[in-house]
Amino acid sequence: MKLSYKWVKEYLDLNIPAKDLAEKIERTAVEVDSVSRLADGLKKIVTGKVLSMENHPDSDHLHVCQVDVGEEETLQIVCGAPNVAAGQTVIVALPGSRIGGNVKIKKSKMRGVQSNGMICALDEIGFSKDVVPKEWEDGIYVFDDSVPVGEDVYSYLGMDDDVIDLDVTPNRGDMLSVLGTVHDLAAIYDQKPEIKQPTVSEDAAIKVEDELSASADQTLAPTYKLRVVKGVKIAPSPAWLQVRLWTSGIRPINNVVDVTNYILLKYGQPLHAFDRNKIDGNINVRAAKDGESITTLDEEERKLAAGDILITDDNKPVAIAGIMGGLDSEISDDTTDVVIESAIFDSIQIRKTARRLVLHSEASQRFERGINYDTVEDAVNEAAQMMAELAGGKVATGIISATDTPRELPTIHVSDKSVNKVLGTDLSLADVTNIFDRLGFTSVKDGDGLDVTITARRWDIEIPADLNEEVARIYGYDNLPVTLPTGRMGVGALTDTQKNERALRNVLEGLGLTQAISYSLTTEDKAKMFLTRNSSETKLSFPMTQDHSVLRMNLLSGLLDDVAYNKARKVGNVALYEFGRVFFKDSEEQVRPEEVSHVAGVLSGNLVDKSWSHQSVKADFFMVKGIVEKLIKNFAPNGEVEFVADNSIKEMHPGRTAKVLVHGKEVGFVGQIHPVTEKQFKINDTYAFELDFDLLNSLPKNADQFSPISKFPSIKRDIALLVDDAISNDDLLKVISKCGGAYLANIELFDLYTGENVADGKKSLAYSLTFENKRDTLKDDEVNASMEKIKKHLTDELNAEIR
């Protein structure tokens, strides 16, 4: 909300710098983004009269003008604007002046003709193109004849006004208007604002009931009022109104549309003006039908959904209520009769419609946050009177009120004791009453406190805590007593889950992976990838984009997007992990999804690049499997870890994927991305894993215990085996561990061979076994006995050939 300081000072006696006022607003009401003045940085820009104009002798579009700037000699200025003409009062930048963008204007020659200055357009002296009136957007600005020559232009263009840009929070919708802000400042500075009640000069010969009627659904439009103004003449607005609008960031259009925007700024009440002659019959407010369409003022066709609030005549839609009018009923240069709409619409439905259509307007912003019931009629009355005065129209007698629901003003009980207890102050009941009086609330003494009736313009106040806040901010936060907190101070500590999460990150980053953070919202197709459990999608009702419309049910699809992003930028070696939440629903009817923490990782290309001291290390299945083993080992689970071949996840390679089981429970999977999926994401060979962190964290764990290094020597023995291809390493490890005895401390596979000298269907494996006795010196006989037992069981159970 851009607030004109001059406009505020029309209602309040303020003699402080704008920056001081802005600081007061920020400390008391809402945040202030900036305080600016268009004239800052400009100099030597004055009004000038074009005395004569001739075509440039060496150009088909330049003109040589003689301009009176209030000095003894006229200035010769070469101007290229298509609308420059003799007799105009224009903006002149004198030689040595500074215009917009800190550009310095010097005397120069333009195609051989001397030019002593510049005739300026509004955007050339600092105005945004968005607020330049349409009639001046392609040329220079021309003043009214009443503007004197040789004066600084700043006051005539509103450039000497300070503009305070308010960042209004959703609960303070009352401050999205000049009068709402004035009332708040009046309470802060203990003043009574001078606000006149609008009066309307109605034409007795024109009865509004003879012109129009209206109907409205009260649940959609609790208040809906119309006025009719006949015989208007569409023309540019007077300069004072244009200045007021563009100072507030709104582009002037014409004298009818500008009045509605002026009232919007003043009252915070959005109005809409219809061309009466383009309306068939009467006006109705109803819920739209699903699939119904309307072409809005921006010339876009909008498809509506059931429940959207629609304004129609007897045959067609004419506006999307509270958001934007229809193109078929807009005010044009031929308009003679105007219907002015002033209403209150269902704020929740306005917000839903605006978000779904991605159509946010000044009107929808205010309807979403709330409207003052007390000024709905005042706004339409003042608008009708202004149109009569500025456009020469006649106001029909009477107002059409399709609905008129009064707002029930809440009454809240509060006492000075309760206020002082919360704020730590020592205010008397009279002090509290005075603050409520300044805010415009009605206070009645009741027992030990006050019954406070809230004014309609402060619809954000509903409970005693809200009144405590009002007392605090008007009394002044700086005046509240300062005390140190008391009580016992606890020692902060991480929970076990937080410790495990941090340890997980340390392990993965120590293994060379980099953390990535992906969006929790994705597409429906990507959300359903890599599923390890049945789940329904959680769809957003009003997504910002279709690419972010469903809550994710896996982390890998987001990581694959990251791999693709890097590959597209010639980064082939990618090692990423992500820790985050995924969202599952057991059925469509489930409202709130179950949130589960997962951890996932991807490897593509080389994990280690080639260097002078070592070769490159390419990512493969065993590398990502090793990362998962290390990760799970860090949880110290009290159970066996198994990897079981799996082909149930269609996005994973069926021959290079394994389920990860801990103590018989499936905690995730590891493997290579399916070539079809890699092609879909436009990536090369990629290996990945995804684990259920919450399940891993909940499994029984081995207690951390100190294990001293044995002071007795260990004994190592190697064993080489020839087994069938169908026998896995895991099968061999189980037999060796079972038969190795109490002194078997470690088993390590150090060789795997197939090929020459090994029969088809066979493979050769070699293991190094470490035996250790921590209480005594281990004897060879004990180790030999264990080795013989191992060999026997390997031979008997797995038909292994000892080599």
TrEMBL record:
Record-given protein name: Phenylalanine--tRNA ligase beta subunit
Subcellular location: Cytoplasm
Highest classification ranks of the organism: Bacteria, Bacillati, Bacillota, Bacilli, Lactobacillales
BP-aspect Gene Ontology terms: phenylalanyl-tRNA aminoacylation
Record EC number: 6.1.1.20
Record domain TRNA-binding: where: 39-154
Reaction(s) this enzyme catalyzes, per UniProt: tRNA(Phe) + L-phenylalanine + ATP = L-phenylalanyl-tRNA(Phe) + AMP + diphosphate + H(+)
Xref: CDD domains: PheRS_beta_core (cd00769), tRNA_bind_bactPheRS (cd02796)
